[in-house]
Amino acid sequence: MKEEKVKKPLVSEEQARQEIESWLDYKKIDDSQREENESTIKSLISYVKSGHLVLNEDKTFTHKLKFELESAGIKELTYKARITEREITQKLHGVKADDVDGRIAATIAALSTQVIGIVRGLDKEDFKIARSVALFFM
To answer: Which residues, in sequence order, are CB contacts of 107 under 8 Å at separation 6+?
Structure first.
């Protein structure tokens, strides 16, 4: 039986938690919202620990893709710290009101300043990371 290697975290649990908490503080996410989104916060901490999500000094996130978008030559995405409703609305063009995945993709597109087609081309693993960030903008 092949032995699997356990990857050592690039960032400690405590450091990752502090970074996510500082980002939530910056976004003024209150305690009740944090409780409601506890599993998403745990996911964000995990992504920071693994090095796939990096919080920058300006409170933007750099998402180092697990699976590069070879057709577009994209290895990472950067998500804004703040966006306006107008930015999201512009990306919603052609997305039906009841298309939840489309609305999430539009939010990710607005956060990353990418076209929605790029976002829809993300591998499911990378989309999960992007969705975890985007949920705090919806």
So the answer is: 83, 88, 91, 134, 137, 138
pTM of the predicted model as reported, rounded to 2 decimal places: 0.88
Q: Cα–chain-centroid distance for residue 13?
A: 18
Q: Residue 77 CB: number of other CB atoms within 10 A?
A: 24
How far is it, in rounded angstroms, from Cα 91 to Cα 88? Answer: 5
Q: Examine the pLDDT at 61 and tell me if it is beyond 90.
A: yes
Q: Are the beta carbons of 37 and 24 closer than 8 angstroms?
A: no
Query: pLDDT tens, 101-128?
Result: 999 999 999 999 999 999 999 999 999 9
Length in residues, the chain: 138
The sign one gets for the Cα dihedral 4, 10, 14, 20 is negative
